[in-house]
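New to this. Help decode both lines:
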Amino acid sequence: MSKEQYGYHRPVLLTESVDGLNIKPDGIYVDVTFGGGGHSREILSRLGENGKLFAFDQDQDALQNAIDDSRFTLINQNFRHLKRYLRFYGVKEVDGILGDLGVSSHQFDVAERGFSTRFDGELDMRMNKHGEISAFNVVNDYELAELRSVLSLYGELKSAHSMASTIVEARGEKPILNTDDLKLVLSKFLPAHRSAKILAQVYQAIRIEVNQEMDVLKELLEQSIEVLVPGGRLSVISYHSLEDRLVKRFMKNGMFEGEPEKDVFGRFSVPMKQLGKLILPTQEEIQVNNRARSAKLRVAEKL
């Protein structure tokens, strides 16, 4: 799989995730995370001339990878609007939905987007460049309790309170303008042997907050039930425990918390059934693409 073949994003679990859709040549499918277009190209390669593929991506940079194919439509919107935009195109039901929830390689590799711990860049982290809230706002404007909550819930950081307090104290002297400023402010929490991992957790927490990723994922999963045909497939690749937990619980019982109610006979109805076991990348794939190391694929079918 060459960069030229798949655009700026090397697809993770490419074959496995598309296999999970059980593609029908004349079916209608949705790739809700178009990115560099790798998964979309694989789906198109399995569709016949009457098949259709709709793709979503809120990042304008993804538009440069649009595929010139009459069966393909790229929608420059957040996938939280899945049902709305499918209806705009006259589509009420689809045969499969694929989502790769990771940040694209392009977003990580462009310093000014602020996603990567490797570069100095603006505190941005917006997947949609026109989003109202950026990482700068989270770091410089959030109250102490809000900031602590973000770092604790979304970064699962044990030192969330101390980190938040340190950030609030530092920004009281001068604004924290870029990622290097943030690293310097948090330097006492970054021992050499663990700095990369802790920074990744900090960045993850801020990025999730900026892009409302947990709320958006919940909306996608709920809408998937509404738009999938009976027997339609949902194939989702997640990259951290927060995402995977939501996907796993929803595929198991159609809820994000608790258990479904049972009827008088002790039975309960669920909207989907999980197919197979959790799928992880092979060591060979991880060696070729290090970003695959935390990927988890789950597939379910609408009942």
